[in-house]
Amino acid sequence: MTVLVGDISYADAAWESTPGRNCTQRRWDSWGVLAEPVFANQPLMILPGNHEVEYNTPPATQTSFLAYQKRFLMPSEASGANDGNLYYSFDVGPAHIIMLNSYMEFGPDSAQYKWLEADLAKVDRKVTPWLIANMHAPWYNSDKHHHDEPEEMFMRQFMEPLMHSNHVDIIFSGHVHAYERMYPVYNNKTMAEATTYINIGDGGNREGPALGYYPQPSWSAYREPAFGHGLFEVFNSTHAHLTWHKNEFSNNVVSDDVWLVRNSAIASNPFTHGLSHVNGREFDGYAPFKSF
């Protein structure tokens, strides 16, 4: 199964209206032709990024997320959501996976927040012990690009306590064209029982990788601005393996490799929630396009 956390085809340019960067359905078509041979044979799960918003002055459409809503069919109704593909959840193996929208209302009075609250309450951790959420705009990010945007700060302000109280294991995000893995963190403090955040917005685009970082926060474990992809494998109810692969080499280069182990599975660990990063790389002095 492939999960894309937004900015799928770059068929529009969010709210921009510059020549060559506004909405074009032909780009959706060409992306579909490119992707069809792969995703005709495996599930593709998606969520919207800022380049799916689409509402703009002509030639963009005047309906938000129009192409994104019409070109895909995600299991929203089955998960109790009623806004099409904008947010939803599903189960796969021992994992319950939540897909959220950074670019619509997300405050406590919003339909998305109320749905998330209800969805989390229904999760049976005996059936799906892994609880994973996805969104486009990252809540934790030490890259200088897309840093502390409103969609990130306010969504985190409203939803982070809800995620923490429900012991969400991992949150994947995109938006920043680089890779960064965090230690378990809550409210800007590293703590063993918190959620692990992984930014993996490095699938590739015309702008290139997001070069440039702020001084590394204590919650940032590993970061590198290069295009690539991640492979996340759940082995059982307590152990999962994450590898990040850079695309700049013709061979299969693994630049981050970490086991994520549920604290409750470690006899000497006093915490029942959260993940321990076992044998994971640590940031050892940033160098652009560094290989190991």
Count of alpha and pi helical runs: 4
Strand order of the largest sheet: 3-4-5-6-10-7-11
Principal-axes shape call: globular
Question: Major beta sheet, specifics?
Answer: 7 strands, mixed
Write down the overall mean pLDDT. Answer: 87
Helix content: 10-25%
How many strand segments? 15
Give the ordered list of helices and strands.
EHEHEEHEHEEEEEEEEEE
C-alpha-based Rg, rounded: 19 Å
Model regions low in confidence, pLDDT < 50 over at least 5 residues: 284-292
Strand content: 15-25%
The first-to-last residue Cα distance is 28 Å
User: By helix and strand content, what is the structural category?
Assistant: alpha/beta
Write a concise synopsis of the structure shown.
By secondary structure, the protein is an alpha/beta fold.
Write the layout of secondary structure elements.
Layout: E1 2-4, H1 25-39, E2 44-46, H2 66-71, E3 88-92, E4 95-99, H3 111-122, E5 130-134, H4 150-165, E6 170-173, E7 179-182, E8 185-186, E9 189-190, E10 196-200, E11 220-224, E12 228-234, E13 239-246, E14 253-262, E15 275-278
Parallel strand pairs: 1-2, 4-5, 5-6, 6-10
Antiparallel strand pairs: 3-4, 7-10, 7-11, 8-9, 12-13, 13-14, 14-15
